[in-house]
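Re: the request from the purification team.
They wanted to know what the chain is likely to look like in 3D before they choose a buffer screen. I agreed to run a prediction and write the result into the notebook, where they can find it.
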Amino acid sequence: MRPGAARTRVAGPGDAADVARLLRAFNAEYDDPAPAQDWLADRVRALLGDDTAVVLLEVDGAGAGDAHEPGPPGPPGPHGLALLRLRPSLWEDADEAYLAELYVVPSLRGRGHGRVLLRAAMAHAHERGATYLDLTTTSADEAAVALYESVGFDRHERRGPDVTSYYFEIDLPAP
């Protein structure tokens, strides 16, 4: 890995405050309500102790840009996350994974950080025995839609009065 390249790691209980900070920032960006920092950190800590929830954090490489474009320094601490929920499959003796959240701080977007997190989440789900991963987003998040499609997710649409909701799915390689 080249110096400064983005990398990911699995969050532990000691990362709960950083995870809560990133989740609250994500909700604030979309004017969605979020619980208080301390409450959310406690909840994240509890979920991280449950084998069905995994948070991957993107660390290092803040501002490293991609292979072609260096960027400014990123914020201190983890600057992106992917939150996976694992559940038993109904149709086969394996797990399925749901990507509940994928977030990169705004100052580092457009440089491949989301792709790093998404690929790490897919690899982690596969390593845990999941054969399928799904997620949802809306038409308002054009960058996310483009990312998911570029990685090979199939898109399914449901229209609402003001927004189109997208459901994405991808088969993961057999473990």
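For the purification team: Residues 62-70 have pLDDT under 50 and may be disordered.
Please add any questions underneath this entry.
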